[in-house]
Amino acid sequence: MIASKASPSASTEASHSTIAMHDLHESQWDVVILGAGVAGAAAGILAGKQGIKTLLVESKAFPREKVCGGCLNLRSQASLERLGVSQAIESAGAVCIESMRLQILKTQAQWRVPAMMSIRRSTLDKILVEQAIEQGSHFIDRTNGNLLAATTDSGSATRSVRLQKDGEMEVISSKCVLVASGLTRSSIRQEDNWPAMVESDSRIGVQCLISAAQASEFADGQLHMLVGHKGYVGICKTDGGLVDVAAALDPSSIPSSGGISQVVQGIIAECGLRGIDLPEKDRWLATPSLTRSSSRVSAHRTFLIGDAIGYVEPFTGEGMSWALASAESVMPIITDIVAHGWNDELSSRWNDWAHRQRIHKQRTCRWIAGQIRWPRGAAWVLRACNWLPPLRASFIRKTSQ
Ligand SMILES: Cc1cc2nc3c(=O)[nH]c(=O)nc-3n(C[C@H](O)[C@H](O)[C@H](O)COP(=O)(O)OP(=O)(O)OC[C@H]3O[C@@H](n4cnc5c(N)ncnc54)[C@H](O)[C@@H]3O)c2cc1C
User: How far apart are CA 259 and CA 95, in angstroms?
Assistant: First the structure.
């Protein structure tokens, strides 16, 4: 049960919120965070720790599943250690992954990797939100948050956010806002200020959880990555005795193949493996187009973090470490605003940070994502990795550290 130590209002049974809608406008918030995925919840922990008056807003009922392979690389694990949740993650039954089996069509390689962990997002995000509450942040779920246009605030020392829950609406103000609403960026969609470039041939992400008995062919402690012509699939055991099946697929192939399960089964078959028992349409979660980026990531008192900044593709499993890193990196700016007030240089600082990170991190992701669009060519690269240990080591470093 998610509950607050310092809740100003008792949570209702139907919700995990620690504050009620009608109590929200009574507070002057230092920071409002829109979205309680890894980026938002991590920011909630860090802001709470510093005594910053923080409201964490989530549109879904918590805990919730979301499209993700759930693999934590070494950088994610180090961030989670700093956030003080490693022990809780272990106790929740996160599964250790020690090897990766990469299969591109019928070419395969099996390598040991530095220990990764696998955990369902419902489990991980609940742990993070509980820690944010423990550190003094307030949390409200089943609440849609929307950033209001800056013009309505011109000259004001705050930024306004509209919150909607169960037919109720409140407009609250905050010294600053973190937009952590993921790929959809639904909390800023109504504003023109945040142009997002979506690549035309972008794939979409899909995910489902199945029982371990349905995927007995896939070994424990191993991440299976299978690449075919219509996309790629990651399969690994996770907490709760379940198996996470996450994939990036060409959206055009889904109707023509008869559904998501059929495309995923097709990729498994292309790799020469026995099919697994996959659910029908309504048990899959799906994302919008994955490959996108935002040219602006900060403007008047507002900062984008995590996937809201931009995303390439999930093959290298960088997503959560990037989301956690962005939450840690934005915190000195938030502290500055709370202590000394707003100035435009703070926006430039965040835009520069995102620009540098994009150049540094996304170049390799883009290269790998490009290679696997052409599985026959990529299979030759995989053979080369098998023959050339330095190339293999570099690939393993990229995917697991
Ligand atoms: C197929 C696939 C597999 C992946 N596998 C991995 C992996 O194995 N390892 C890894 O590290 N990364 C992986 N990723 C990437 C990873 O899932 C993301 O990078 C990560 O979830 C980004 O975190 P975030 O907090 O920015 O966004 P999210 O986790 O998407 O969280 C955003 C939150 O905001 C909420 N929200 C949205 N709109 C609003 C609103 N208006 N008001 C309030 N709340 C709102 C949403 O409900 C959600 O809870 C994968 C991605 C895909 C697509």
Answer: 30
Question: pLDDT of 4-36, one tens digit each?
Answer: 444 433 343 445 678 889 888 777 899 999 999
Cα–Cα–Cα angle for 322, 368, 396, rounded to 5 degrees: 70
Strand 196-198: give its sheet, edge to edge. Answer: 196-198, 292-294, 310-311
H/E stretch holding 169:
strand 168-179
CA 238/CA 232 separation, integer angstroms: 19
Q: For residue 122, give the nearest of 3, 240, 295, 250 by alpha carbon.
A: 240
- How far is residue 395 from each of residues 71, 96, 107, measured CA to CA in Å? 16, 20, 16
Answer whether residue 254 shows pLDDT above 80: yes
Calculate how far, in angstroms, residue 182's C-alpha sits from the geometric centre of ligand 1.
5
pLDDT at 335: 97
Beta-ladder partners of 245: 208, 235
Q: Which residues contact 42 (CB under 8 A, 6 or more apart)?
A: 79, 83, 128, 323, 324, 327, 328
Beta strands 29-34 and 54-57 are: parallel
Residue to probe by mutation, ligand 1, list 24, 79, 181, most atoms within 8 Å of CB = 181
Residues 6+ away with beta carbon under 8 Å from 156: 173
Mutate to test the pocket of ligand 1, among 233, 235, 307 (most ligand atoms within 8 A of CB): 307
Task: Report the run of H or E that residue 15 belongs to, with start and end.
Answer: none
Cα dihedral 351→333→329→244 (10° resolution): -90
Rounded to whole angstroms, the Cα distance separating 132 from 124 reads 13
Q: Which domains does the chain have, with CATH numbers?
A: 1-95+118-199+289-401 (3.50.50.60)
Identity of the residue numbered 392:
R
387 C-alpha to ligand 1 centroid (Å): 36
